[in-house]
Amino acid sequence: MKKRGQIVYEALVVIIAGVLIITGFVQGGKSYGQQEAFYKLAVAKDIAVTIDLIYALPGNIEYTYPNDVSGYDIEIKNNIIKVYKTSSTDSTLQYYNYVGTDKDQLNFLVKSQKFLKIEKINGKIKITGVSG
Amino acid sequence: MIHNKKASELWVANKILFWIIFGIVLGFSSITFVYMISKTGAERATVYENLESLSLLQRFLKSPDCFTYGNEENALYLALDYEKFNDEQLNKCYSFKQGSPPAYRITLTSESGDIVKSIKTANWNINRDFEEKRAPANVMIRRQDELQKGRMEIETQNIK
Fold first, then answer.
1. Out of B38, B72, B100, whose CB is closest to A58?
2. Which B residues, 5 through 24, put their C-beta within 8 Å of a C-beta on chain A?
3. B27-36 pLDDT, tens digit each
4. Same domain for A99 and A51
5. Residue A121 sits in which domain range?
6. Which of B13, B26, B37 sits opposite A21 (nearest CB)?
7. Helix, strand, coil distribution of chain B in percent, nearest 5
8. What is the ipTM of this complex?
9. Which of A23, A27, B84, B160 matches a 20 to 30 Å C-alpha distance to B37?
10. Higher pLDDT residue, A95 or A22?
11. Which among B142, B102, B100 is positioned nearest to B120, based on CA atoms?
12. Beta-carbon separation of A58 and B51 below 8 A
């Protein structure tokens, strides 16, 4: 036979689990419904293709990615570009792979800047944020 | 009679059957949910016209980090350095740790016929045929301080 305290404890666990699941569904639904998740994926793919292409071009290059990425953090590391919402747990984080070169290992984190500046100087890519 | 039951017996979450059904229902709902939403708006993030594969193969033709004769400051456009044309150099200039990027097999042939060499990226599957073969690109091949005409043929797998 279970004690009253035990029953309350179990009920609490079930309620918390339920709230977490519902919150996850709501967050995911909102993100996909407002096309935000697809926007993040499109940004990740755009940046990946841009990096792929920039590695093909000889000489120094500077390019500003023109889509507004304010409100997102963009992490470029280990051949992966991750795009996620700034300062919150993002259940719809999006990522995409790029192909690099052995002599240039990218490791950048751009936090909530409006635009992204991608430069290649002496064969090495540098990615920074550009505010408004 | 319901009045005779203890409160703990009425609490449905105590039953293992409840959790089994709950798990199944939640699993199906999640899958249906993800499937439905992935159909809406996904085209917004689609890269069309094999743009990714096309962007990637440009480096084989134009980058001094791959085969182009010269360095970052002075590169000879569409002139390939035969000394660089090997698997090791290819995998240095086409480097990835994860994901499944397009795979390439590149064949260099000189007009005179004394050069016929094929190299491939680390992810090229020898048990599969190519998915795309592009029209050969006319290039100059620099070998032992001499330039000669040639062609570069690029085949692709995992086209994107």
1. B72
2. 6-8, 11, 13-14
3. 888 888 777 7
4. yes
5. 38-130
6. B26
7. 40, 30, 35
8. 0.73
9. B160
10. A95
11. B102
12. no
